[in-house]
Amino acid sequence: MQQGSGILTPRQRRLAWLGFLLAALQAPVAARLVSDGSWLFSLCVALMVATVILADDTKRRQPEGAGAD
Could you list the residue ranges that cross the membrane (predicted)? Predict the structure, then answer.
């Protein structure tokens, strides 16, 4: 059984992980330094990038011909 290819290229996948880590690390730092709730934007961006990474993982784990109906 072969693995399917994901929606991201390997380079895009590495950049997505880097973006996720940077946004996830920046949110608590901004929460400490900024008095308003703008740090929530970083959290939302990190969650959206994590969703794309999870969708890519799911697509990669499907067999090659699955979902082509």
Answer: 40-56
